[in-house]
Amino acid sequence: MDRDKRQQAIEQLVNLNFNAIYPVVWNSGYALYPSAIAQREGIQPFVPTGAQGQDILAELVEQTRGRGLLVIPWFEFGFMAPPTSELALKHQDWLTQKRDGGTTWVGAAGEVVWLNPFRPEVQNFLRELVLEVVRQYDINGIQFDDHLSLPNEFGYDPYTIALYQQETEKTPPANPRDPEWTKWRADKITAFLANLKESIQAVKPNILLSIAPNPYEFAYNGHLQDWLGWVRQGLVDELIVQVYRPDLPSFLKQIERPEIQETQQTIPTGVGVLTGLRNRPIALPLIEEKVLAARQRGLGVIFFFYESLWQQALEPPETRKAAIQAMFSQPITPRLPVLENIPLVSTPEPVDQPELTPTPPPLAPDGIEIPVIPPPGS
């Protein structure tokens, strides 16, 4: 997207009362901004720029200034990387393993490897990337998603085995879902996040730390991501649970979970609503039903992803835009007091069924994720 098209996109989002965007800055093992850290590590064979050779993130921050749009860079890949990326090839000692010695894993992003979140070198690298963005850009926050985690079948590499034996005097159990083994690994990821938050606040105290995980049971047991514990420890400033369900009943089942109800009493809480994939568009009526259900329950809404809002959709663009305008007809107002230092985010409009709407704390932004096409060769 060139400068003019990006400006047009921002104008459309502002007019539709969006109040936050989450642009991808870490994807497929590459920093999607000029990164001295990535260059130092020798993992960045290109300098990402816009069509006019500009720093896209810097330009995005400038274009949204004063428009009521929070800019929260999204470190999408977290501890994950493609096996053919320079990062994975150069730092094979950073990779963790399954019990059979395998290092690859197949998920929504295809075949990937996982950086070992328990190694200090990996933690330092990711921390430095985040702090680089925090220092270089006038952003409102940073976001990690379900990839600030580790699939539970990993952690059987020599380094992690030795660390576990040193701390527990036990050998990691063969069952990757063993409760003690699961908790030990999850606690290590929690400790990393606590250190990261402390480091961010030391640089810019007002930066928001947003997390967009999967529903809790799957996140914790399947990916060692104890996001409810993070919320309870005060490590997270905003929670956006990815509830990409194919129908309304399964969507409702997740957004009514007690852990979501608990979280929204303390921090801005929202749900991720899938507006379509490049090969799987989502019909507008289902999107409307999900948005209404979320807002009736005092939850913010974040759409994934920008192109599928109206460009890659079943309905004409103007039909989709009109529907979104109707969903978010309220003007932008401050979100207080939870994030009083971050101005201009919206409060959802009242709904017709007040019995379903408790008096909630300030809500998560109604925003849009902006993914990218991975760089060539990734």
Whole-Å distance between the termini? 20 Å
Helical amount: 25-40%
Please report which band the strand proportion falls in: under 5%, 5-15%, 15-25%, 25-35%, 35-45% or over 45%: 5-15%
* Anisotropy-based shape: globular
* Cα-based radius of gyration, to the nearest Å: 20 Å
The CATH architecture category equals Alpha-Beta Barrel
Helix/strand-derived category reads alpha/beta
CATH topology title: TIM Barrel
Question: How many domains, as an integer?
Answer: 1
Number of strands: 15
* Nearest-integer average pLDDT: 89
Q: Which key phrases capture this entry?
A:
378 residues; alpha/beta; TIM Barrel; 8-stranded parallel beta sheet; 3-stranded antiparallel beta sheet; 14 helices; 15 strands; globular; Divisome_Glycosyl_Hydrolase; GH; Putative glycoside hydrolase
Walkthrough of the structure:
The structure is a single chain. This protein is of the alpha/beta class and 378 residues long. The chain has a single domain (3-370), classed as Glycosidases (TIM Barrel), CATH 3.20.20.80. Helices cover 38% and strands 15% of the residues. The protein contains 14 helices and 15 strands. It has an 8-stranded parallel β-sheet. Strands 5-7-6 form a 3-stranded antiparallel β-sheet, with no helix packed on it. Helix 5 (120-136) packs parallel to helix 7 and helix 12 packs parallel to helix 14. Mean pLDDT is 89; it is low at 332-363 and 372-378.
